[in-house]
UniProtKB/TrEMBL annotation:
<dbReference type="GO" id="GO:0008704">
    <property type="term" value="F:5-carboxymethyl-2-hydroxymuconate delta-isomerase activity"/>
</dbReference>
<protein>
    <submittedName>
        <fullName>Isomerase</fullName>
    </submittedName>
</protein>
<dbReference type="InterPro" id="IPR014347">
    <property type="entry name" value="Tautomerase/MIF_sf"/>
</dbReference>
<dbReference type="InterPro" id="IPR004220">
    <property type="entry name" value="5-COMe_2-OHmuconate_Isoase"/>
</dbReference>
<dbReference type="Pfam" id="PF02962">
    <property type="entry name" value="CHMI"/>
</dbReference>
<keyword id="KW-0413">Isomerase</keyword>
């Protein structure tokens, strides 16, 4: 915990330094929400080859982050995390030439029967 999944469009492939972004994201999460540690963060990236936004105009890209954490955090804590993650996304995608980047974050609770094993 947390489990972080990042879906991003192909136009962001050459701009988004995924490893650097994930490491900064882990640190940000640990600073923003009590109980999250850098060591507990896991981030998976999935490149999407095509996304159609609105009327299909070229020059648009989407990055969406699902951030799943253990239940019990307040709505305020989740909102603070969501805002902080969105700001980090904006700094990492600000230099995409000729592209409007649509960015979103969804902070959700892991299921009530979430279990894990490390070993």
């Amino acid at each position: 915990m947390p489990h972080i999944t990042i879906d991003y469009d192909k136009p962001l492939d050459d701009v988004l330094d995924r490893r650097r972004f994930a490491l900064e994201l882990h640190s940000l999460a640990a600073k923003t929400v009590d109980g999250i540690t850098v060591e507990s963060c896991k981030t998976r990236f999935r490149r999407v080859d095509e996304t159609v936004i609105a009327n299909g105009e070229h020059g648009q890209a989407l990055i969406h982050i699902d951030f799943a954490i253990l239940p019990g955090r307040t709505t305020e804590a989740k909102a603070a995390l969501s805002r902080a993650v969105l700001e980090l996304v904006r700094t990492h995608t600000a230099d995409v030439p000729d592209t409007v980047v649509h960015a979103s974050v969804d902070v959700i609770d892991l299921g009530p029967v979430y279990t894990k094993h490390v070993g």
